[in-house]
Queue: 4 jobs
Job 1
Amino acid sequence: MKVVLINPPITTNLETASILGLKAPPLGLAYIAGVLEKEGYDVKIIDASALDISNEKLGLILKKESPDVIGVTSTTPTIYDAMKTIVTAKKYCPDSITVMGGYHITFLPEETMMECPELDIGVIGEGEATIIDLLKYLEGRKSISEVDGIIYRKEGKIIKNKPRKLIENLDEIPFPARHLLPLDRYTILGERHRLGNVMTSRGCPFRCIFCSSSLFYGRRFRARSPKNVVDEIEELVYKYNIKSIEIVDDTFTINIKRAWEIAKEIIN
């Protein structure tokens, strides 16, 4: 089974992106791709935003790839770009299953499904385990009712399955499939060297009204081991020649002892 994952072309917030001068790797898609590769699936990432690919060109690429599943990530600021990409995917690959994940559809699943009729399935919350179960369903190895954490269409109705449990051991998740990304495209403030990002933990116990992280990843702090984190940092530096590394945790320093352990592991 062939899967294409897409970071959609950005047309709705170009001014903000230009001011920030930032193009960061789509870490969520790379995590999903890493899980899929580990399970033996044929997977490709198209970062249309970083590559400045239009929806029309993207459609032609998809038609040539002819994937079984097309996955698109979504945030609220870019939701209409994500929806346009879903529409493009269905236009050029009408037989492909369209899937959307990310923050926006997690918080507004029914509304997103209703607003985008071309969307077949939505992934709610963490997607690493859900995507594997979803592909098992598409391969006939599971019933769709057994796939937790999704929303889908059936006989003209929108059905939302029960929530998926959070991933307990983050060390078990494969490292992001960064070899599928256009790494030279990720920079910050005009610098020439590559920018990478790392998520060392998930979850935040606080309830800041301006932040969605605790709702997406839960309020329980879940951390990777310092060794696992530094192994990934070493991969970034020595395998991918990454010079700047951004830690994208919800609350990296909530456990100061662990933060020190990571720092010591880096030194060692």
Note: The CA atoms of residues 135 and 141 lie 9 Å apart.
Job 2
Amino acid sequence: MGKKILEGTLKEITDPDRLPDHIQQLVIVDDRNSLTNYVHRFSDDRSVLVADYDDGKISARLDWHKDNTNELSRQHASHTATLQLRDSEEYSRWNKMEGDMHSQEEFALFIEENVADICDPDHTTMLEICRDLEATQDVSFKSGIRLENGDRTFVYEDDTKVKGDMTVPTEIRLLIPLYNGEEPVEVRAKFRFRPTAGGLQFGFRWHRVEYMRQATFKEMATLTADNTGRPVFYGRT
């Protein structure tokens, strides 16, 4: 028995809920200006910004869902540009030293190499302190006196019983950007001192720097919203 062949025509069946063709792209940018320029290129009335401080990201969700002023409909939400915040080179260098104690020589070399970041005390004063630190590595420190202005004077004695003193500040102020590509801000650091048999050890601790980083992050998100005309939401998805 032969096969029976059915004749007919093919008809395309469309899905009324099928989403239109779309861009599927995840872009990472390195600075705020690049994020702003990318948003200008691809955004429309669906686009929103999501700022997540804990994850260090400001993301532009370019094909996000339409708001309630339009007919509500789901969108692909697959085209995203994200600014992954990076610490500035200056902040990274100082943050690597923060919290630890260092020898006089190591600390003096670090200050000399990064003195341009310090706005108070002035550069001349800081370089003089560095020279004092380098010149008194082998002396015996006897006592420390806190002065009225908060600075501390250390009295020392060398092998020949010649006495001297060295004054160092208890706080320095830096003028550095906290994030890559951003403007410098003033950051405070508190000096720490530890007398040892081998001489003084020096270090510093940030003073409320995390609050400054949070404020800078919020300012960056707000500026991005202002420059792109897109709303910003703080949190995560």
Note: The two ends are 63 Å apart (CA to CA).
Job 3
Amino acid sequence: MAHFMKGLDYNIYVFDGPGQGTALKNGLKLTHNWEKPISTILDYFGIKRASAVGMSLGGYLVMRAAAFEKRLDKVVAFDIFYSFMDSLRVRLPYDKMTKVEQLLAANQKEIINTQFYAMMKQNLDLNWKINKGLENTGTKTPYDLLKEFQKYNIKPILPLINQDVLLLAGENDQYVPSSRLPEIATGLVNASSVKSIMFDKASGGDQHCQAGRRELGFDKIKKFL
């Protein structure tokens, strides 16, 4: 990040929040209400006004923070992240995820755990996602994790965001459907301004967080700031 942000006339604070890096190693588990760690950082350093950039899942977390922490004046979703359930839908058949959500609504813990343990044996990507999620959140079973994941949904908080917002997306993002970009932009009805950028395959920035051409995303961020 330091390499890409070189020359930007900002004081930059980079930190591990709950569920990340050193914070996770020290026992702080992931939380959806990201305004709390952001507010703690701002309070600690006596910061009255700041811009915030959230990367990957941070695309949700930074928007959540902006909804409730008004010392943030500009917000960047690098890239957009609509909901955790989206990330599972991208990799699982639509009808299967629809059934899972119905079972969650009915609190069918045993059935969900049995189904997910079986799927995880056959799907390395799903196995990694679930086990990483268990580690980061401190939950014990796939059912508990999915219940926790349901808290990570950007739709209810979009009207609460009134800052300037930059939304980045890749058309072939392997975790977030690119169709969510206009949906998020439209939902930001009270934002001071909204700028949306979709990177296509020709640009080389079509993957998650512009993997392989990260400088494309950072260039747009620097111009926005």
Note: The CA atoms of residues 91 and 126 lie 8 Å apart.
Job 4
Amino acid sequence: MAQDLLRHRVRDGDLAAIFERALDLLIERVKKERFASGCSPRTPAATKPSESRHVPASIRRELYKRDGGRCAFVDESGRRCPETGFLELDHVDGYARTRAHAADAMRVLCHAHNQHAAELIYGRAKMEASRAPKATPKQPRLL
């Protein structure tokens, strides 16, 4: 089906070319979803700070561009983490403490370094407790 739909763009129907095009589109779509990359900036509807954990697209886009689409963690010897996968947005002072989203107080970190930063802020015991599986109450069995 993909070969038929893309025949006008990939004349010879080469599966490798079609697959490469599909991957390019997928990467573009995921970057747009996760980091608002390629989206047109819109003016914010309201200036009132929100209690929502949702980070506005304008801030996600700014962070992704500023940090170059990779983890911003720098170790004590000055080496920057090369990770470009498992990226997460991190509130430098912890969202639980600030309840605010501001690009100058946020950064892009890989999952491992985001967890490390959270342990430094909240403590290892608190983070291990939050990562532990939650016990769900048993539901009565219906006949």
Note: The chain has six helices and two strands.
